[in-house]
């Protein structure tokens, strides 16, 4: 807890209005949706993605009384009793406070950066050294300008060492992170082309990242990260294959599922057994080993602990559970910060109003009276119906809970009683440390998974949304297209994220799709593109808003509403400006307007049209014609209606290409899922990854053939893998015979023979592959689509419903 007046000297402010300078705060808030109770929050009106000043009324409503803002015009008289600090840059102020907090600690603070492996090295090190140190690690992948500040804020006097991850996406960012973290020791994991985006060259990226170690006394890195031009950076502790390396890798023997490393450290040769075989994991283990050696750990201890490492499922997963539950599975680590993230994700879920938490004890935590109370306080303000605690040390937490709770001594005890707990019809968060093996509970609660899954990255969806948001002028709304099962990626799972992130409208193709979202608790307005007479009842029942595209549907909907004496029902008028699919042509407008003006039953909520080729250069002049025709028609309609309506014409590719056509709203479709033919500088992330596994491997001589009709002709003795995906799953039959490629252990392989209904075969002769290995089915969706003469839309929406969707949120 700090008081406002103590921190004031540490932030660069221009003005204050502070009736109560002694106000204390312990929470740095920037997102009103995450505020449960307002006192003790210091709210920062961040302006990076949305203008945080707009959320001040809501924060005040929730009890927040201390604000850091940048808008000099902001009228604070509306907020009696509240404290305001004006700064030039609110994010900077938040970082300054985090840096001030960090300055109170003289413990080792280890800064971790690199292109890949940061999060895994951090999490593994935490596991490896927790027995000796009360070790703090920054939660999940909180490594950005904001994430690092929030991470540091969680440091407490009980921590003896801290692992802080730092990530940068463009030049200039690391200096700010370094100022905050001030690492006493550094770890550089790797350098690679990942996130090349904001850098001119690999050298520039490397130099930027290295700035994290400005003050660090020791830096651990693989020697392979230096190219010749970077000799000057050589001053640190390294691992690698060279004689000059502090930890030298002499030999490496790969087995079926483990690797033996022969290593040399300070003239001592030893072998280390590693429970992984992939290169990335082995690199990360070597980094961790050298850090442990540097911290003074003995080789024997290191051997035992490395052997116990497990690959991390580092993500919060949302799964379909048995008994009508949704399960949020987050069973790899547990601490206050990551618990908060998981609880926030739980709060976003609307599909059931009953919310439960199963929570294990925290590994390595030495509970004190104050930390017990802190946990109980945090839980008591959550919208939870039941809390199930695992671990007898949590007894005092239970005593302080006001929410109905149960306590089990161990995971075994919970498993024994599980069937009597009637865990049905709820959203259930499973949150536990690795040691507690809550994944055993998850296995019993989650529906069995098929080997072929479509992984959906909800964080990527959020990222894409904010990328497009950053292209829009203030006030322009977003309608998110969730038709066709959200382009194949899910129903309420996607809609919950969009609703939480405040899009303005959702759009579905059919009434059924909208009804499903309503039943799952989605409250946003929902437009239906293709309504028809038979579905009007459901439109009313589920408060859906129809697209009105013809005189016939207009007349029948008005008549339908009139019979029920319904007035001002929102509808969306579709104008045909050249697509010639649905919509009113120019010469039909007058008749339509006559009907609209003469009835009270409907109110035109929006006017819109659709472009035929917004992303195409060759169709540019046609697009411009469509836009101007739309503008012309819309102006005429508005003036005839006598009220203004929301106008929209842009789909994804139009957003970037025709900012002049954003009007009041844009319709974001495929871009939200990570695809845009010409994203022009936007950094999109693919939301879905289709994955399967190798079922069997065969060694065949060159005289054999593979698959139906002997189409898979071998030209050499070959190793052939059968994978569990076929055309019935949405793997197009045209991708057979070498047209399709998949990725196994980072290597590209081609199909061989015809695609079967439920399976297909891959030529894996040239790569390391074994049964059970994971296979990425569409490593480059644009390219695959192009190869068979279609578009990513068709492939995405064609992934069949029998392919299980697994959602995660990083
Ligand atoms: C599908 C659809 C969109 C979204 O198109 P994207 O190219 O996926 O952005 C927009 N408007 C209408 C009417 C649509 O049917």
UniProtKB/TrEMBL annotation:
Reactions catalysed, semicolon-separated, are: L-alanine = D-alanine
* Pathway(s): Amino-acid biosynthesis; D-alanine biosynthesis; D-alanine from L-alanine: step 1/1
Cofactor(s) named in the record: pyridoxal 5'-phosphate
The keyword Isomerase is annotated on this UniProt entry: yes
Single GO term (MF): ligase activity
Query: Which Pfam families would you find in this protein's record?
Result: Ala_racemase_C, Ala_racemase_N, Mur_ligase_M
Residues binding substrate: 581, 757
Q: What is this protein called?
A: Alanine racemase
The organism encoding this protein is Sphingobacterium tabacisoli
């Amino acid at each position: 807890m700090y008081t406002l007046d103590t921190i004031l000297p540490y932030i660069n402010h221009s003005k204050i209005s502070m009736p109560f300078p002694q106000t204390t705060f312990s929470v740095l808030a920037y997102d009103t949706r995450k505020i449960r109770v307002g006192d003790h929050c210091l709210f920062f009106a961040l302006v990076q993605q949305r203008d945080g000043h707009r959320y001040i009324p809501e924060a005040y409503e929730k009890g927040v009384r201390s604000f850091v803002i940048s808008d000099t015009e902001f009228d604070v008289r509306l907020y009696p009793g509240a404290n305001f600090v004006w700064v030039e840059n609110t994010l900077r102020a938040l970082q300054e406070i985090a840096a001030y907090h960090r300055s109170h600690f003289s413990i080792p603070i280890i800064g971790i950066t690199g292109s890949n492996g940061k999060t895994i090295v951090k999490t593994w090190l935490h596991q490896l050294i927790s027995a000796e140190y009360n070790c703090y690690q920054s939660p999940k992948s909180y490594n950005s300008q904001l994430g690092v500040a929030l991470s540091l804020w969680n440091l407490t006097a009980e921590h003896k060492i801290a692992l802080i991850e730092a990530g940068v996406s463009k030049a200039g960012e690391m200096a700010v992170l370094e100022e905050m973290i001030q690492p006493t020791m550094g770890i550089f994991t790797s350098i690679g082309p990942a996130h090349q985006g904001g850098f001119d060259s690999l050298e520039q990226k490397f130099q930027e990242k290295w700035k994290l170690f400005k003050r660090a006394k020791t830096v651990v890195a693989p020697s392979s990260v230096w190219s010749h031009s970077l000799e000057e950076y050589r001053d640190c502790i390294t691992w690698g294959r060279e004689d000059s390396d502090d930890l030298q890798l002499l030999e490496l023997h790969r087995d079926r599922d483990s690797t033996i490393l022969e290593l040399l450290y300070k003239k001592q040769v030893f072998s280390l057994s590693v429970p992984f075989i992939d290169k990335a994991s082995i690199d990360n283990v070597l980094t961790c080993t050298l850090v442990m050696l540097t911290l003074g750990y003995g080789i024997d201890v290191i051997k035992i602990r490395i052997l116990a490492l497990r690959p991390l499922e580092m993500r919060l997963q949302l799964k379909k559970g048995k008994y009508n539950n949704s399960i949020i599975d987050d069973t790899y680590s547990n601490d206050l910060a990551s618990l908060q993230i998981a609880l926030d994700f739980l709060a976003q879920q609307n599909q059931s109003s009953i919310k439960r938490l199963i929570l294990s004890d925290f590994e390595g935590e030495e509970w004190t009276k104050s930390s017990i109370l802190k946990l109980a306080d945090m839980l008591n303000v959550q919208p939870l119906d039941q809390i199930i605690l695992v671990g007898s040390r949590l007894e005092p937490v239970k005593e302080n809970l006001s929410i109905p709770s149960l306590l089990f001594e161990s995971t075994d005890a919970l498993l024994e009683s599980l069937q009597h707990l009637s865990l049905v019809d709820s959203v259930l968060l499973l949150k536990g440390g690795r040691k507690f093996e809550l994944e055993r509970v998850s296995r019993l609660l989650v529906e069995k998974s098929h080997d072929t899954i479509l992984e959906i990255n909800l964080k990527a969806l959020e990222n894409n949304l904010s990328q497009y948001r950053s292209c829009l002028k203030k006030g322009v709304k977003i309608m998110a297209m969730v038709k066709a099962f959200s382009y194949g990626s899910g129903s309420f799972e996607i809609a919950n994220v969009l609703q939480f992130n405040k899009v303005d409208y959702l759009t579905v193709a059919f009434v059924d799709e909208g009804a499903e979202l309503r039943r799952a608790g989605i409250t946003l307005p929902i437009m239906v593109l293709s309504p028809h007479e038979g579905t009007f009842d459901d439109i009313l029942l589920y408060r859906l808003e129809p697209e009105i595209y013809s005189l016939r549907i207009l007349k029948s909907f008005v008549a339908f509403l009139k019979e029920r004496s319904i007035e001002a029902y929102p509808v969306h008028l579709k104008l045909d400006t050249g697509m010639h699919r649905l919509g009113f042509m120019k010469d039909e407008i007058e008749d339509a307007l006559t009907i609209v003006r003469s009835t009270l039953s409907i109110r035109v909520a929006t006017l819109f049209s659709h472009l035929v080729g917004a992303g195409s250069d060759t169709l540019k002049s046609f697009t411009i014609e469509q836009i101007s025709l739309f503008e012309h028609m819309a102006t005429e309609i508005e003036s005839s209606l006598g009220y203004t309506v929301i106008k929209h014409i842009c789909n994804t590719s139009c957003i970037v290409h025709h900012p002049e056509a954003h009007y009041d709203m844009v319709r974001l479709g495929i871009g939200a899922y990570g695809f845009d033919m010409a994203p022009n500088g936007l950094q999109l992330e693919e939301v879905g990854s289709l994955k399967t596994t190798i079922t069997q491997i065969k060694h065949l001589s060159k005289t054999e053939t593979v698959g139906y009709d002997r189409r898979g002709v071998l030209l050499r003795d070959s190793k052939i893998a059968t994978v569990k995906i076929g055309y019935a799953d949405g793997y197009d039959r045209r991708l057979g015979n070498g047209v399709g490629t998949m990725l196994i252990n980072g290597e590209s392989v081609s199909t061989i023979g015809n695609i079967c209904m439920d399976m297909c075969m891959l030529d894996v002769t040239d790569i390391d592959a074994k049964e059970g290995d994971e296979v990425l089915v569409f490593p480059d969706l644009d390219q695959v689509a192009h190869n068979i003469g279609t578009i990513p839309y068709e492939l995405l929406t064609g992934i069949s419903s029998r392919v299980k969707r697994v959602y995660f949120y990083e």
